[in-house]
Amino acid sequence: MGGIPRIQAAAAAVFFFFILLSRPPPVSCADLYAVVYKGCANQTFPGGSPPATVAALSSTLATQSASAKFYKTSSAPVSSSSAAVFGLFQCRGDLSGPDCSSCVSRAMSSWSQLCGPSVAARVQLNGCLALYEVAGFPQVSGTQMLFKTCGTGGGDGDFEMRRDTAFSQLEGGAGTTAGGFFATSYQQVYALAQCEGDLSNVDCSSCITQAVQHVEVECGGAPSGQVYLDKCYITYSYYPHGVPHGGGLGGQQTAKTVAIVLGGALALGFLVICLLFARSLVKKKDDY
């Protein structure tokens, strides 16, 4: 007879856990559109304005962003005097379709605002990346660091051990998920990583490992940080007093991370309930 109460108690505990975690910080669209960094070529297009190929590329990318989170393509030259233009976009793996499309549109509209008529422009927003470059533009290594930022102060107690554990989970998970996106949480440290959409699992894992090494060197014991390499990036935040209810980078990312972690926790809780129920049935059978 003790089996049913135990099952009910376990179910109640899981339900209570759900109530606690199912109210993440509010997600602000403004957070998605905030500029993280920009990269602009020094060379500009002749005539002081981008050619029609850039507009054609933008149109193609905008169309694809309605149904995909990663896409890259080229726009063919319209005359012998113009060059082909390559471009891509990538949205963070936890964005909805509409949010991805809106973010890509905002990033592409920022090309001219932030870079003018440059022959190459790269705009990274919190929610997405969009870039274009003329054919033959010099390339950098996929693990070249493009941008980093670190929080102020330092984590308390065993923060760095917690962060390193979260980083290990990123390194193990990012190369095994669709789109190279992975988010995790470990004892108040929330972290996520993403690779460029067409990287192989091996290359993605290698890139994330490089990003982790950069952030450990660049940010030391800082309680938050972001490191963007050419083909991947990682971010992390530490909330020793619980996840704050607010916008900003931490709130935006943590809302998504908590939701992902919640899914795994609920699955585990459901499994526990099932096992307890099965055990109670076996015990009843033995009693008879």
From TrEMBL:
- Carries keyword Ribonucleoprotein? no
Kindly list the places in or outside the cell where this protein is found, as annotated in its UniProt entry. Answer: Cell junction, Plasmodesma; Cell membrane
Q: Which InterPro entries match?
A: Cell2Cell_Antifungal, GNK2, GNK2_sf
Residue stretches making up the Gnk2-homologous domain: 32-137, 141-241
Gene Ontology cellular-component annotations? plasma membrane; plasmodesma
Q: Where are the transmembrane segments?
A: 258-278
* UniProt protein name: Gnk2-homologous domain-containing protein
Q: Which organism is it from?
A: Brachypodium distachyon
